[in-house]
Amino acid sequence: MAVVKANAYGHGLIEVSNILHSFGVEVFGVDNFEDALLLRQHFSEVQIVVLGYVLKKDLTLLVKSKIELVVYNFETVKILNEAGIKSGQKARVHLKVETGTSRQGVLLSEVNKFIDLLRQMSHVELVGLSTHFATAEEGGDNKFLVQQLEEFEKAEHQISKAGFSLEHIHCACSAAIILRPETQKTLVRAGLAMYGVWPSEKVKLAIPDCELKPVLSWKSRLAQIKELPAGTSVGYARTSVLEKTSRVAVVPVGYFDGYDRGLSSLAEVLVHGKRCQVLGRVCMNMMMINVTEVPEAKIEDEVILLGQGGEDTISIEELSNKAQTIPYEFLARLRQDLPRIVL
C-alpha cells in the first residue's frame, strides 16, 4: 500500500499517485474521505483505503464509490451494511486491532464480538486486518513491537479460525518494512520512506549500507535585494541586527507556506550553491536572508529552501531539527496549493 495521506506527505496527492500508478501500484492509503474521492476521480479501478475516520453521513457515498474503510466501531459497520443494501454492493472493510498505540482499533478482547457482528452483515465484506506499531522507529530489540506483533497475530488467528479469508493483512509501516521483515504480512504500508526520507535517525543508523534519496526539493526566488548599514534591525521585534553592512534579500515564502517560524534566525537557504542565513523572524508570507557572500545574486534568482544546490544540501532532517520537530510534520505542513512540478 502506498500511503499518500496528508497530501502525500506534502509532496502532492495527485502528482505522487500518478507516478506510483504508472509503476504498477494498485493499493493507496489516505486518511480522509475527501482525498479518497479525489483519488477515485483519477483512478477508477485501484484499491483505495481510508485509514482515518469517515462521518456517518458519508458512508453511503463511500460504498457507492468502491472505497474501502478501516473500521473499529460497531455502529460504523451497521451503517455500512445498510448503505450496501441500498446500493446493491458490498462495503469492503479492514478491521483494525488496538495492540499498543491507544489510538484507533478494536481491543483484542472485542475481536470475537466484531466477528459475530460481521457474520450478521450481508453487505459488509471483511477484506483486511491491520494494526499500527508504537515503537517501530526506535530500532534495537524493540520488545514492545514484538509484544504488539504477538497480539496482532492472536487476532489474525481468531479471524482465520472464524473462517474469514483475508486479502490483506498489514501492520508494517516504513520503519518496520526496513527493520522488521517478520512484520511484513500480505501487504505493507509504505509511508515516509517511500519519499526518500528516513523515519528516524535510529532507523538510518541501523542500516548503514542503505541510502534513501529524498524526492522533494522546495524552491523560491529572490524578490528584492538591498544593501543596509551595520546596526540596521531586520524583521518583527528587531530580533536580528546587522553587525556590518550587508546585502539583505527578501524571499516570498513564510510560515503560511509551511516554512516553520521556529526557523527564524536559525535556518539557512542556498543561493548559487552558497548558504545564506535567515535573518530575523520568519513572517507570514516572506522572510529575509543575508546574501552578502553571494555578490552575484540578483532579483528572481533561485533560492533553495530544501534540497540540493551545487555541492551543498539543505536536508529535511536539518530543517526539522532546527525547528524542533520531525520530518513528518514539516513535510505535511507544506501548503497544499504550492505548485508541485514533476521532473
UniProtKB/TrEMBL annotation:
Binding residues annotated for substrate, in chain numbering: 103, 284
Positions carrying N6-(pyridoxal phosphate)lysine: 5
Residues annotated as catalytic: 5 (proton acceptor), 236 (proton acceptor)
GO CC terms of this entry: cytosol
Pathway it works in: Amino-acid biosynthesis; D-alanine biosynthesis; D-alanine from L-alanine: step 1/1
Keywords attached to this entry: Isomerase, Pyridoxal phosphate
GO terms, molecular function: alanine racemase activity; pyridoxal phosphate binding
UniProt xrefs under InterPro entries: Ala_racemase (IPR000821), Ala_racemase/Decarboxylase_C (IPR009006), Ala_racemase_C (IPR011079), Ala_racemase_N (IPR001608), Ala_racemase_pyridoxalP-BS (IPR020622), PLP-binding_barrel (IPR029066)
PROSITE patterns in alphabetical order: ALANINE_RACEMASE
Reaction(s) the record says it catalyses: L-alanine = D-alanine
NCBIfam families the record matches: alr
Free-text function comment from the UniProt entry: Catalyzes the interconversion of L-alanine and D-alanine. May also act on other amino acids.
Family affiliation: Belongs to the alanine racemase family.
Name by which UniProt lists this protein: Alanine racemase
Lineage of producing organism: Bacteria, Candidatus Uhriibacteriota
